[in-house]
Amino acid sequence: MRPDLAAARISAYGPGGPQRDRAAFGVIGESVGGLRHLTNHPPGPTDLPPVRVGIRSGDSVSGIYAAFGIMAALRRCDAARGDGKGRSIDVALTGAVFSLLKGALPEYVALGTVRQPTGGGIATAPPTNACRSRDGASLLIAANSDPLFRKLAALMAGRSWPRTRAIPATRRGWRSARRAKDAVAAGARFLVHVLSASEAHNRSNVWHAVADSAEDDARMLGALPAEVGVRITVATAFDCPFDGRIALGSVLELIGRPAALGPDVEICLCDTMGRATPDHVVSLCDAAAACCPQVSTWAYHAHDTYGLGLATTYAAHCSGLRVFDAAVGGRGGCPFAPGATGNVATGDVIWMFERMGIATGADLMALQRRLDCADLRARHRAALKPALGQQRRDARRRLELPLRRVEVEAATVLGVEVDPPPLPCGAGGGAPRLQDGRW
User: Fold this and answer.
1) HSE value, Cβ hemisphere, 13 Å, CA-based, for 222
2) How do residues 114-135 score in pLDDT, each as one tens digit?
3) DSSP string spanning 369-405?
4) Alpha-carbon span 347 to 313, nearest angstrom
């Protein structure tokens, strides 16, 4: 072999380590390297097939790294002060793919965060994302720098955005006030700022100490016009993936800071992990209302990790809360809270309250019609199917009930025994009774 030869090879896992003797090819490299995991559909049921990258990204990236390595080796060999020696370059296929994931490794080492599949979306760089427009087309927005965001805000200015909620928080807290101004200029009239009751989660979510995030709240409010509404969302108010159950006293102390900023600030208590139980929710909601009576609007944000989302939502309602967050089809989650699943489903919340006789002003049928144009039809329909089915059965029973009553009255006159008509839930105040020939 020529002593000045530069040679490159692409191995599966590199020349060292316990997997050095194992073979692999592009698909395995893309899987082990994490690319196929992150580009798959978000967790949850879907009617779409698993995502498969349609190009040979693993082979291509490895080849590029190998070419760089050869050029560097030749420069080292042929330079004026080069050593004239050849070199052997090894490029690990899995390592080359993993390098595309940017901050995934530092996030895991420093914060313990494991990135989850996001499909075509980007969970960490709003407003850069793939969005669905009203006419069903897809729109790619890339505005993750201040100059681009200002241009986007200028293009959106003049539009009417009633109750549109914008989240101006960034990982550089001092920019929150500026982003808030940009959002207002774009037409937003309700802004949301997030801080965590857990120090570890707050640093994972926005890279800030809780005290710094609280200062951002005050700075943001001072920069806004009086007519703009503000919500302070307290994440991990009940439980944290890093710190465990959050002490009630520390949550109340934190809530007192935004509550002191003004009576019109809406405060939302978040069960980020979905681990709260109804009694836990009642105790915190009651204590918060007693601690901060000046707060005019409280909200509750539930995740359904352990199937308690509806139960805790109702518990919050029993404590006097009237604003509740929900996600269509139970979508959602938190990329910086390992183990957190989707939010409580919008259809389930609407159906529960309407079934209890509590008006929501929402229409399940209209919600279903909107979902017919969405990408995640299967998941949404599955979540709404029980509620819609019961709604249709109730409507049918309401239509059939008068006819059945006519049959009973006619049979009573004729002296024929028939079964009593079924009454819809809550109608009549109890079991049906026959009185004066009528049920």
Assistant:
1) 7
2) 778 877 666 666 566 777 777 7
3) HHHTTSS-HHHHHHHHHHHHHHHHHHHHHHHHHHHHH
4) 13
Please answer whether residues 276 and 306 qualify as being in contact, where contact means their C-beta atoms are separated by less than 8 angstroms. no
pLDDT tens sequence across 388-404: 555 555 555 544 444 44
Annotated domain spans of the chain: 6-101, 145-344
CA 157 to chain centre: 26
Name the pTM for this structure: 0.55
At 382, the amino acid letter reads: A
**Catalytic-role residue among 291, 334, 373, 425:** 334
Q: Are 319 and 285 in contact (CB under 8 A)?
A: yes
CATH number of 145-344: 3.20.20.70
Q: Position 1: which residue type?
A: M
DSSP state of 24: -
DSSP letters for 84-142: ---EEEEEEHHHHHHGGGTTHHHHHHHH-------TT--SSSTT-EEEE-TTS-EEEE-
The residues pairing with 140 across neighbouring beta strands, listed in sequence order, are 130
Specify which residues 266 forms β-bridges with. 231
Judge whether 334 counts as a catalytic residue. yes
